[in-house]
Amino acid sequence: MKIKFQFSKIIEAINRNLIKPKQKIEIRLDRLSMDPHRYWIAVAKGMERPFTGEFWNHDQQGVYQCFHCQNTLFQSDYKYQSQTGYASFFKHHKNSVKTIETKEKYRYSALQCMNCQSYIGQISKDGPPPTFLRYSINSSALKFYQPKKNQTNLNQSQK
Ligand SMILES: [Zn+2]
User: Fold this and answer.
1) Cα–ligand 1 centroid distance for 114 (angstroms)
2) Which has the higher per-residue pLDDT, 121 or 5?
3) What residue stretches are annotated with the MsrB domain (predicted)?
4) Distance between Cα 84 and ligand 1 center (Å)
């Protein structure tokens, strides 16, 4: 199901004090063509509901890119099953992910793609060895890519 937002109406409502946002809302005009769900995650720093994303239970070998800019963020070798309902990794690809604000109270920090500044998920310090970090990533922020190697299962190749 797709929900249509009318951003002008939302901005008008905020200006007239009909809606009081808990935090400052950033409206990215260059991103209004995004699917509203992806916009909500990338710009408003939303988290999708656990166990609903495409990749929380995905275990193919390959690379996870930023959905919006195709920057390589994670590799399947860094993925593990955390049972939290999010695609979970213990490490990110070099120079690809940036920690932004830290919520001390909840013991996690927000993460964004270093290239396009889209919000992707959270990091906390309760992951497995060797890093003991847990990256909880929204599937909607990711695009899976399977590089062509000596893959035997040809039907599984990327689109
Ligand atoms: Zn990106």
Assistant:
1) 7
2) 121
3) 22-147
4) 24
65 CA distance to ligand 1 centroid (A)?
Answer: 8
DSSP at 11: H
Looking at the structure, tell me whether residues 35 and 69 fall in a common domain: no
Give residue 115 CA to ligand 1 midpoint distance, Å. 5
- Look at residue 101 in the predicted model and tell me its pLDDT: 83
Residue 151 is predicted with a pLDDT of 52
Separation of CA 42 and ligand 1 centre (Å): 9
What's 86's domain CATH number? Answer: 2.170.150.20
The residue segments making up the domain with residue 86 are: 63-145
Does the pLDDT of residue 52 top 90, yes or no?
Answer: yes
| Cα separations in angstroms, 146 against 40, 62, 64, 74, 123 | 27, 4, 9, 12, 25
Say how many domains are in the chain.
2
